[in-house]
Amino acid sequence: MLPNTEPCREDFEWLRSEVVALGGEATVFAADAISEGGTEEIVAVFRRAREQEYRALKSDVDRLLPAGGKEKAWRASAKGRLASRTLRGLHDRLHAIERIDFFNAAARGETAVSLGRLERAVRGRQPSAAAAPAASSPAGFRGRRWVTRRRPGVDRMASAWLIRRFIDPAAEFAFVDHAGDTDVPFDMYSGEFSHHGDACTFEVLAERFQLRSAAVGTVGRLVHDLDMKDAKYGLPEAAAVGRMVEGLQALHADDATLLEHGIAMFDALARSFESDQENARPVDVKPGAGATKSARSARTRPSNKRR
Fold first, then answer.
1. How far apart are CA 228 and CA 179, in angstroms?
2. Which three-class secondary structure state does DSSP give residue 174?
3. Whole-prediction pTM value?
4. Are both 148 and 263 inside the same structural domain?
5. Reduced DSSP (H G I as helix, E B as strand, rest coil) percent helix, strand, coil of the chain, to 5
6. pLDDT digits (tens, 9 = 90+) for 240-284
7. Which end of the chain has fewer beta carbons closer than 10 Å to its terminal beta carbon, N or C?
8. pLDDT tens for each residue of 195-227
9. Does residue 114 lie in a domain region?
10. Residues 197 and 235 both lie in one domain
């Protein structure tokens, strides 16, 4: 049981598609509480359950935390090595609780703080990257119609931008229940270009077409957090981008118009990230008189591109 909202309905549709793909049967229902106070009781049950899960997770994290000021010795200890190995699992537990914390249980904040302390203590230890799948060539996808579900959200807007920018600049998009034989479906509930594992559709497309630019990577992290609802990367822009997507959905009832505005939004966002990369390049200063002043001026002068 989940609140009857568009994101939750989408979550149930993804779940239903997985059940069907495994040979099972599933149906999604909408229901109302008919007893007085029924809705409030359900909300209270959700909050109590999430509160208990947050408290249990915080307790497990706190048992692993190093004593104040002794992080270096702690890292070399058995406890520190255990914490490093289990950190990803603890993050996954937090994200799993957050995904179903629809009514903001009070213990979430303090649990996240404890986990942040543990992560800082073991900072620098990253899991090895998985082997990349074989790349697809954009040439085989040009001149074809890309189709997806109605009412595009953050993943479909960003994916459509990625398709137009890097795969087929003249790509046409349509909204269908079932893809035709020559169509290329994306972010449908099945298919090659959809969710795979813990990767959203944008990430799958970027990986399959080997799109490695820094701007694509940053957009991908934003889209992942918003679409997968797991706060894996925690980029500060994510909340604002999510609000922009909601605003576009409220402004535009026509799906084609909505998608085009979403593409424009992500194009502007990506170009801003590209500008950040350009402005971050080191300034080359020739030695000699005035070099120190020139270097200082180059570092502090505001960039016209950002205005």
1. 24
2. strand
3. 0.55
4. yes
5. 60, 5, 35
6. 999 999 999 999 999 999 999 999 999 999 999 887 766 555 545
7. C
8. 887 889 999 999 999 998 889 999 999 999 999
9. yes
10. yes
